[in-house]
Every structure is written in structure tokens, then in C-alpha cells.
Design a protein that fits this description.
heterotetramer, A: about 220 residues, ten-stranded mixed beta sheet, C: about 220 residues, eight-stranded mixed beta sheet, three-stranded antiparallel beta sheet, globular
Chain lengths: ~220, ~220, ~220, ~220
Amino acid sequence: MDTNQIKAIIAKRVAMEFKDGNLVNLGIGLPTLVANYIPEGVEVTLQSENGFIGMGPAPEAGKEDPDLVNAGAQYVTVNPGAAFFDSSISFSIIRGGHLDFTVLGALQVDEKGNLANWMIPGKKVPGMGGAMDLVTGAKKVIVAMTHTAKGSIKIMKECNLPLTAKGQVDLIVTEMGVMEVTPKGLLLKEKNPQFTLEEIQKQTEARLIVAEDIKDMEI
Amino acid sequence: MDTNQIKAIIAKRVAMEFKDGNLVNLGIGLPTLVANYIPEGVEVTLQSENGFIGMGPAPEAGKEDPDLVNAGAQYVTVNPGAAFFDSSISFSIIRGGHLDFTVLGALQVDEKGNLANWMIPGKKVPGMGGAMDLVTGAKKVIVAMTHTAKGSIKIMKECNLPLTAKGQVDLIVTEMGVMEVTPKGLLLKEKNPQFTLEEIQKQTEARLIVAEDIKDMEI
Amino acid sequence: MNKLKTIQEALDMIKPGMTIMVGGFLGVGSPELLIDGLIQRGIGELTLIANDTSFPDVNYGKLVQNKLVKKVYTSHIGTNPESGFQMHSGEMEVILTPQGTLVEQIRAAGAGLGGVLTPTGIGTVVEENKQKIEVDGKFYIVEKPLKADVALLRGAKVDQKGNVYYNLAARNFNPLMAMAADLVIVEADEIVEVGQINANDVMTPHIFVDVVVKGDR
Amino acid sequence: MNKLKTIQEALDMIKPGMTIMVGGFLGVGSPELLIDGLIQRGIGELTLIANDTSFPDVNYGKLVQNKLVKKVYTSHIGTNPESGFQMHSGEMEVILTPQGTLVEQIRAAGAGLGGVLTPTGIGTVVEENKQKIEVDGKFYIVEKPLKADVALLRGAKVDQKGNVYYNLAARNFNPLMAMAADLVIVEADEIVEVGQINANDVMTPHIFVDVVVKGDR
């Protein structure tokens, strides 16, 4: 699979989690693609943590408004019924449990639902931005990422990078499968039929519990 | 002196404290009258704690707006440049030290700057409303009241009613004089020439320190 | 996602014993028809969170007058003699809180904060039995978040998605309460099409609002 | 009370070593002329409070690029490589704070609160060396208020009294910072007569604003 195929599989699968009327925050990078796969008939409101809900697609060339960007500083538009607010309201929405879903990438995630995605000590310290609040406050936290990073394992027994939040992740979606964080560990609920269980486990440090009713992932 | 004369003396004297550009909150009752005596050339912005600055006088009959009232539920108007906001901003202004003056009445006030004006145990418990925040947060707290309540003493060595705030009062203005709260006690800075020092002290439980340069109060 | 309901449909969602927040300041900025509906149906044993208990014959003051409130969190009861009477008789429990603290407690609940650190009330009876902490040599009371089952609000203009615009001094507690209740019902002076409220001027974003009813103004 | 000043008059009020807050999110909603003026004058040794350190060539990102910042409170430095470089070399101290905490710390300073009780950062390095308290069985970090000597903001419309109206996503931290600094300077895209901003739509009331300068948009 090429990178675009991988990303499409993941984004499409994440989008299937949303219900009509949900409020969702999509992180920068791969999670942003999820917006392209929201099923017909499901109305999802997107939040941009720099201060609005009702985010729409990128504007046509020449129609950019310098005051209307997403949290990655890219030009966007808003849909009818959008609302703008200051950063304190934006993070009241996030921390106060008003977001149905936050979708983010990860450097590491583990079987206890711990997430690390904001720094690599001594190497790269971009900062947490809004990620810690998003992961702490959203009703459901979905990690959307490639299963490994150029071969190195990201789904751990226990994260060894500094955490973004402790025990907050609910679901992990990769190109190999869909894993739910349960008190017993990671429950593999769906798998990409292109991979065997053994292949998936081999790319995963945490022991995967295979769901009795495991399904094929839609790819 | 009749009651109206007394109130006018107090209100007029309080108004002399304000400087151009000050933001002021006037309590219900006597303090409200202070607005009528603000000197020519001094622009004062009045805050209403139910959610705006720029409060103006009562409207003409027939021009009342049911959504535009002061904190005592009386119809008011606003001046050009007014701004409306929610209660959290209103109390951010109050608690955050953005008010230059708050002017309130008192049941009791004492030489340490303690104030009691929100309840009489077993008799009357109206509640503190915004008074505790106002007295805690304003840069300067002025108590504006008649010197005694039908003969009973209100300026105490120590308040015996439940406090509104501890040690926050800066100035006490009555029809008898102007008293500043200092670390040494109440400094009588101005007196109404209609009263002797002995007469004023007799109506005051706290010992008054007479300022060396004591002035006559303008009446 | 049709949020437009009748008053009766909205009232069906409110049960005796619930905790309700009502927007308004001495009744200004409060929903009229919803309160009258609660009284007509006699929905009682309520815990009320409101800035004050208004006047005996005005808005949520009537809930107290009709003995539908068993407990109230408020900053002021002085304008409603019935509140003082029921407090002294023990019929209604009254938790008096400084106004600026009350609004922050509601905000904290909506904002996912663990409480409020306020200097207001230090050295008074308000601090009794409460946790206090020292920050940089100054003491603050830890006041807990305050949330409700239902918030009953009034907006001047509400669009069909639920975005709200308030008018003048009728705004007060309404936008804060909109964030702090499981079910948020807004009584609208006027219901408008989506887009009629400028997105930049929305005061309560639609995601906080569950139900919109038409008021009679 | 004439608040209208020239850029140069406004810059005269900003001294080396001051703590400055700058509104904006990756430079969107930030004052341009004031920042360029700081750089021209070389006003350095600044402590900067801003959501991020923007990009090397955009707005307050240029303050870092020109080595005028000795310490920064921010949530994100990843878009400005110079920030990471100066952090690692020790030239600039970087206090990384979750974005929602940073905005509440600024708000707390403006609102006279003793700090913020947030669950964000519990179980991470963010909680290290900080006071934590338990409220109803859940732990929260006590984060201190954050204030500044000067706030440099950008408004879309500012009236001659200083009332501010912000535009779209350029609002962000601006209204919070307006309450949390001793001196508040707003760079206005447009300066309008009093009354041209509807009193109900004012986003920063004029009492928070000390100086208004005209931007070049």
C-alpha cells in the first residue's frame, strides 16, 4: 500500500465512528483527512481550537481570508451556522467535555490508553499545543496513525516517551486494524484482511486480545 | 438636617474623590445618588454588575427597555461608548482590580477597615449579592452612609455583625465627616462645621484620630 | 437534529427533583413561558441555581412562591420575602454565595475546571468549612463547580441550529449556564434562519443548546 | 482621555526587560506594526507570553528570530525552529504549558482569581513541581495566574473610546490578554467613531484599553 492508500483507509474508518450531531476536533496531519469521509446523512460539526465551530473546506484560490485559518494556520472556510469565540471558550468546549470526539496522531500509545505525542526528549520538543486538553477533555479519544513509524513500533505495552495524557485513549485506528482500549488491554475488533493476526501482532508490542466477533475492516 | 440634605452632603463629597477616566460601581440606595454630583470635566464610567459599563440616567417615561435595568432592577439608559457583557466578565472587572472605586452602604464599619453590610443574624438575611466581590476587588472602597442608624452607632472599634470583607475599606464618608482607614485607626480628615469634634466622636465607637490639617467638609 | 420544540415538549423533559439553572438577574433575561409551565404542572422538589430569587411575582421568584424549590444556590434573596420565610422555617435550604463566585462556579463546571480559587469571602462566614489554599502568600477559597440537569435560558434571537444572541442586560448568567447543564433549553424572543446571526456575533454557540422554544415576546 | 497614539508614542512605553503578552495564534490576530517597531528599536530581554512562537518570519516569531526574547510562556514552539535552537542552547528559557491552561492562567490574572484548577497535565511532566489538590476525589493541578506589563493586541474595529471588535479567528487570546496587563495597546485595522460598534457587540470593553494605534491593513 502506498502512503495515500494507508491514510485513506484510516481516515475512512475513523469517520464511521461519528453520529449525527457530533462535535469533533481533528488534529493536524492525517486526522484532518477524516473530514473527507464523513458518511452521507451524518452531520458533524468540526471545531478548530483557535476559536470556532463549523469549519468547512479550504477556500478557492483567491478567496482566502487572512483572519480565517485553522489551528495549523491553513486557510479554511466556515459552514452556515458557524460560530466564532475566544480561546477561553474554545478550551471550555474542549476541557469541559463538550467534544464528542478528538482525533489525533501519536508517537506512541499503549495498552492502558496512555498517549505520547508531544515531544522526544533531547530531539524534538514542539510543545503540546492544545493536545493535552483535547485528550483530557473529549468524551472519546481516537488515535489515528500508521501502525508503525518506518518499521519502529508505536503501539506499546507502556509508553516510554513523555505522556500527553494518562489513560485517556479509547480507540486506535491504523491501516492494520481497529483496537479498543479495555481494562484488560487492547481488544482487536477489526482487522485489515490484507494482514494476518500474526503479522499485526508482530508490529505491536502490546498483546492484542482478539475479539470473538472480529470483523474485516472496510478498506 | 433632613434626610435629603444628609444624603446630598454625602453623595457630593464622595463624588469629589473621582478622577477623569475612573471606572466606578455605585451600590443601591444612597451611593446611587453620587452619580448626580460628579464634577464638571470629570468623566466617570459607571459599571452595573448585571453586565455593562456606561450606565446613564433613568429613561424618560415610556422609553423604558425591559432588558436594560441596573442591578436594582430599575430602568436605566446607557451613554455613548457603553459595552454589554456576561456576568463572568462583569465580575472579572470587579474581582480583577479593574474598578477604581466601589461605593457602598454599611450596617457597620470599623477602624480596621472591616465592613458588615449583608446580614443581621436571625433577623434579616438578604444575601451578599455582588458586595463581597466588589469590596474585595475594587482598588478603593468607599463606605457612604449616614453616621448613625436612628441613633445607633455604626462606626465601630470592631464589627460584631458578620463581615462582608476583612480590612478592605479605604474611606468612610458620612454627613459628619470624612474618615480614612489607616494602620493606626480612623483618621478624621474633614468634618462638617455644623458639628464639634466631641459631637462626632460621641456618635463613633472607634477612636477618631484628628488630622493635623483637618478641613471643613463642603456642605 | 431538529431542536425546535413546543413548550409542552420541553416541559416533558423536566422532572421533579431535578437541579435547574435559570438565567436572569432579578428576572431580567429569564424564560417566561418555561417557568409558567413548571408552575402549571407543579414540577417541584427542585434545586434552583440562579443569581437571586427575584420578586415573588416575577419569573423564577414564582417557583419559590409556589413552594416548588427545596434548595437554592444564589447570591441574594432580599427581594423575595417568601425566600427568607421559607429559609427560616426550614422549608427551603438556601446556600448563599457571592455573585462573582456563583458565576465562576457555573463557568468552572462548563469549562471542566476543578473549581474556583477566589479571594472573595476570605475572613467571612463564606470561608467556613471550605478548603483554602495559599498561592504566593495569599489565601484563596476553593469553591466547587456547580452544574445542573437542566438550564432554562432566554435569548433575544436564536437560529434554527441553536446559536444564541442575547440583548443588553438580559445576557448576564445565560451564556455561562448554557455550558454547565446536561440539557439546555432556550426560550427565544425570536427564532431566525441560520445565517441571520452573524457567525462572529454568536454569544452561545449552537453546540451547547439542545432545545429551542418560542417565547411570547 | 485621548487614547489614540502614534506607533512611536506607543513604543516609547515599552522597555527592555518587560513582560509582554501578544495576542494571536500563529500570528493570526497579532499586531504587525507594534512588533516591527520593537524589532527596529531592538527592545530586548523580553519575557513573551503568547500561544506559540509563530513562524520565524511571521509577527512575534520575528522577536525570537531577532533574539529579543529571554523567556517565553507558550504552548507550542514547533513552527519556529529558532525557538527550539535557542531553547537547547540555553539562550531562551521556554515554559511549555497546555494551551487551555495558558489561556486560563491569563484569564485568572485578569479576573482576580488565585489560579486555575485543571485536570490537564495530570500524570504527565506538566504536573512536576506544581501544587495539586483533590476536589471530590479527583486531582487537579494548581496553575498560577499569568500577567504582563504590556499586552499588544490587534482588533478589527476599535472606537475612539477603546471598545474593540475582533474578526473571525483573529479573536483568540486577544480579549483575555486585554484584561491581564498593566498597559494594553491595541493595533486597530480600523478606528471608528464611538457608537459605530454596537454596545451589545463590543468584545473588549474600553475600560481595559489604554492605547489605540492605527495598523496598516
